[in-house]
Amino acid sequence: MMTRPRLGQMLHWAFEGSLLLKGFFALLELLGGMVLYFIGTSTILQFIQHATLEELTEDPADRVAQFILQVAQTLSMETKDFYAVYLALHGIVKLFLVINLWRGVRWAYPLALGVLPLFVIYQLYRYSHTQSIGLVFLSAFDLIMIALIWREYWLTE
C-alpha cells in the first residue's frame, strides 16, 4: 500500500524545488549579465529592430513593440553596463545563496533571510515605476521562498 507524503515532506520538496528554480534563474542572470556586458549597444539595437520589425509591420501602433524599440534606441553604454553588472552581481549573490542553502550551510539561512527581503523590496519599488506584472510574480515567489527557508532553518536547528 502506497503512503501519501506528509505535509512536512511536501514542504521540504517545495524548498528543494524552489532552490533549483532560483539557482537556474540565477545562472541565467549571471550569463545574461556577462553577455550584455560584452555586446555593444548597436548590436542590441539591431537585434531589437529585427525582433520588432514584423510586429510593427503588421501593427505600426503596437505599444509594446514601440516601447521596446524606443528603449533600445535610447540605451546608453553606461546604462547597458549598469544593467549588465547588476544582472551579473544579482545572479552571483543568488547562486551563492542557493549553493550554500542546498548544502545545508547554517549561516546561509539567516543570510538568505536577510538578502531575499531586500530583493523583494527592490522588486516592488521597480514595480511602482514599471507596473511589470512579472515583478509581482517574482516577489511572490521570493516571499514563498523566504517562508520555506525560514521553515527549513528552524527544523534543522
Give the helix/strand layout.
Layout (H helix, E strand, L loop, with lengths): L6 H32 L2 H18 L4 H11 L3 H26 L5 H23 L2 H23 L2
Question: Briefly, what is this?
Answer:
The protein has helices at 7-38, 41-58, 63-73, 77-102, 108-130, 133-155. The chain has 157 residues and is mainly alpha-helical.
Task: Give structural notes.
This protein is mainly α. The protein contains six helices and no strands. The longest helix has 32 residues. The model has no long low-confidence stretch (mean pLDDT 87).
Report the biggest beta sheet as strand number plus sense, adding barrel if it closes: none
| Share of β-strand residues | under 5%
Alpha-beta classification: mainly alpha
N-to-C SSE string, H for helix and E for strand: HHHHHH
Give helix % range: over 70%
- Mean pLDDT figure: 87
Tell me the span between the first and last alpha carbons. 33 Å
Which ranges are low-confidence, i.e. pLDDT below 50, for 5 or more consecutive residues? none
Specify the number of helices.
6
Give me the Rg, rounded: 20 Å
Task: Tell me the total number of β-strands.
Answer: 0
Please tell me what the overall shape is.
elongated
